[in-house]
Specification:
The complex is a heterotrimer of chains A (179), B (346) and C (107). Chain B is mainly α and 346 residues long. Helix content of chain B is 69%, strand content 2%. A two-stranded antiparallel ribbon of chain B has the order 1-2. Chain C has three helices and no strands. In chain C, helix 1 packs antiparallel against helix 2 and helix 2 packs antiparallel against helix 3. The longest helix of chain C is centred in the C-terminal third of the chain and has 31 residues. Classes of the chains: A mainly alpha (179), B mainly alpha (346), C mainly alpha (107). Chains in contact: A-B, A-C.
């Protein structure tokens, strides 16, 4: 086994580079979602965000969750959103973009939140270094055992919530016969 | 990070992608000659012996055709859509094992590009992403027929994704693993999964036809109804990218069917034993076995296309939701019954 | 650890803030939904980052963080479905998805 780092010393930083790349893509695409005028393009930007987040999950070794994110979020939810946009034939928004005040307040909010969280996250470092590494972190088998074992009741309740949402969506969106 | 593994992965990606993409012209030749045989006429037979150079001629034609971009389309998404379709189609090839493991320089290298823990799910993810290509193509063309075709096609793909996932889940329940290599190995040790789960096989077969928009489920691109469906406004290379995406999807569907239900790349024991196949020779035999099985199903795709009439859209959706989904659920229950109650192991 | 969970947490905060910005500053109902999805994703990211640093025998169990993220995913799907149904109903009554038009509690 020839470690890549022996041949190409920068390779040890590859996960870090990948993470920063994905993070930049996610932030830029998220800005695209909220700032662009055309709904379908916004939906496509949302797909990019979701794929970037799935990539970050994979980098953190949560592979099952990464694949689920792509299948459920990017492959089903945003498709549904896009369908609705196309069925309702939504064009670009009539009004102009957000005003200057909104942008400034929004930026302050974002920076403030990031700063607060950054201070909390500073404590992640030392604890992470000493934390016991869970070798089964992203494994499908471990996830399955947890879902059908300790987390069984929340799992069933969420399935019922999905059923309720399904029925509710059909009822709310149905065309009333008297209209 | 292992340098040898990296090089092996790059080589595998290059070989598999190039092989699949160059399989597409051969498939078009099979389609045209095969349709000729079925319809009692000659197919293309002018360009080369048996018309074998016809795909080459088609490729040259596509290159030189004028690439018309209509002025009323939404350009960024118009240009992006064929790329999304093709990328998602090729991405699905990453998890399919073409053979067992090869031994190179004293190391065993698996023949699948991505032998990850959540194996088959990656394929479902990729086919879910393929819906965007069609949806966005239909919308960006700014044309009623394209939009209708795009909406119909993507709602068809999403509905049949359910049937596909249910059939796949039944195999996962039965084999107890998500990795295609392990599924194939279990089938190699025992009987093929189609013996235990015949209903699942049929569900996956039908869903595979619908996922790839092939007849009898190709109303979204029906020429008689919607001009060209979602690819009406596309010409030359962009159109051929959609075309290629459809054929690569066909290959992926056939390969999924073979891997999950028909023993994948495994060579049956009664051939493996007497011939004494081991090591790299076995891997080559497995590659051949996989190619033969997938080839048979590709021919089956072509055969069905030129034999059956197409379904009307409401019939199509009815089959997807009212027939395949309940059958899929029953099949999962049957698989669970086999494993838990009868204790049958693959 | 290869990826710094603290950095992931900061990223999730930024995405959350962008989501809130989207919900506050846009008027189309579908964009609001997309902003909400961004916020939910940011929350999921924070959950997984926290699960990364939790030792194996924590209070929520070894896989607790990821299972929570999975349940949030499922709930987000349910909420998106219902939200879109509401958008369709809004469009049918008002002819546009501008949420400023939905001022009264009854039609």
């Amino acid at each position: 086994m020839i470690p890549l780092a022996a041949l190409f010393p920068l390779a040890i930083a590859l996960p870090r580079i990948a993470f920063w790349g994905l993070a930049a893509v996610a932030v830029l695409a998220a800005l695209g979602v909220v700032l662009h005028r055309n709904p379908v393009v916004e939906a496509l930007f949302l797909v990019v965000v979701l794929l970037a987040v799935a990539g970050i999950y994979a980098l953190m070794h949560a592979w099952f969750l990464a694949v689920l994110q792509v299948i459920v979020y990017a492959g089903a939810i945003v498709v549904l959103v896009t369908f609705v946009i196309m069925l309702l034939n939504l064009g670009p928004e009539a009004r102009g973009g957000p005003g200057v005040l909104t942008v400034v307040l929004g930026a302050l909010l974002a920076l403030g939140l990031a700063g607060l969280v950054g201070r909390a996250a500073a404590g992640f470092g030392p604890r992470a270094a000493g934390a016991a590494w869970n070798p089964q972190f992203g494994r499908v088998a471990a996830m399955g055992k947890a879902l059908f074992g300790a987390w069984f009741w929340p799992f069933e309740v969420v399935s019922l919530a999905l059923l309720a949402a399904l029925v509710g969506a059909v009822v709310v969106a149905k065309r009333r016969l008297e209209e | 990070m292992d340098a040898v593994l990296l090089v092996a992965t790059v080589v595998k990606v290059t070989v598999i992608v190039l092989a699949m993409v160059s399989l597409v012209p051969i498939l078009t030749w099979v389609e045209r000659r095969g349709s000729g045989i079925i319809q009692l006429r000659l197919g293309p037979n002018r360009v080369g012996p048996f018309g074998l150079f016809q795909p080459l001629a088609d490729g040259i034609k596509f290159f030189f055709k004028e690439d018309i971009v209509p002025p009323f389309v939404h350009r960024p998404t118009y240009v992006l859509a064929p790329g999304i379709s093709l990328c998602a189609a090729i991405l699905a090839l990453a998890v399919l094992p073409l053979a067992g493991s090869f031994e190179v320089a004293g190391r065993t290298i698996p023949a699948a590009i991505a032998d990850v823990d959540a194996g088959v799910l990656l394929l479902l993810a990729a086919s879910g992403l393929g819906v965007y290509g069609i949806l966005v193509a239909g919308w960006s063309s700014n044309n009623k027929y394209s939009l209708m075709g795009g909406l119909r096609s993507s709602s068809q793909m999403i509905s049949y994704e359910l049937g596909l996932s249910l059939a796949v889940i039944s195999v996962l329940v039965f084999c107890g693993t998500l990795r295609p290599v392990e599924i194939v190995e279990k089938q190699a040790a025992g009987l093929w999964n189609v013996v235990f789960l015949p209903v699942g096989f049929l569900v996956l077969l039908v869903a595979g036809f619908a996922e790839t928009n092939r007849l009898p489920f190709d109303l979204p691109e029906a020429e008689s109804e919607l001009v060209g469906g979602y690819h009406t406004e596309y010409s030359s290379m962009k159109f051929s990218m959609f075309f290629m995406a459809e054929y690569v999807n066909m290959i992926v569907s056939a390969a999924l069917l073979v891997t999950l239900f028909l023993g994948g790349y495994s060579v049956p024991a009664f051939i493996r034993g007497p011939l004494g196949l081991t090591g790299n020779l076995l891997a080559a035999a497995e590659l051949l076995s996989f190619a033969l099985k997938v080839g048979f199903f590709l021919w089956f795709f072509v055969w069905v296309r030129w034999t059956l009439p197409r379904f009307r859209f409401d019939q199509l959706m009815g089959i997807g939701w009212k027939v395949l989904v309940p059958l899929g659920f029953l099949n999962i229950a049957w698989a669970a019954f086999l494993v838990a109650v009868l204790g049958v192991t693959p | 650890m290869q990826v710094d969970p603290g950095a992931v947490l900061v990223l999730s905060a930024i995405l959350f803030a962008i989501g809130i910005f989207g919900v506050i500053s846009r008027r189309g109902a579908v964009v609001l939904l997309m902003g909400v999805e961004l916020m939910l994703n940011a929350g999921n990211l924070a959950l997984v980052a926290a699960a990364r640093v939790t030792p194996a025998g924590g209070e929520l169990g070894a896989m607790g963080g990821q299972v929570l993220a999975f349940l949030v995913l499922a709930v987000a799907a349910a909420e998106a479905a219902v939200g879109l149904a509401l958008v369709i109903a809004l469009f049918r009554h008002k002819g546009s998805v501008d949420v400023d038009l939905a001022r009264m509690l009854r039609w």
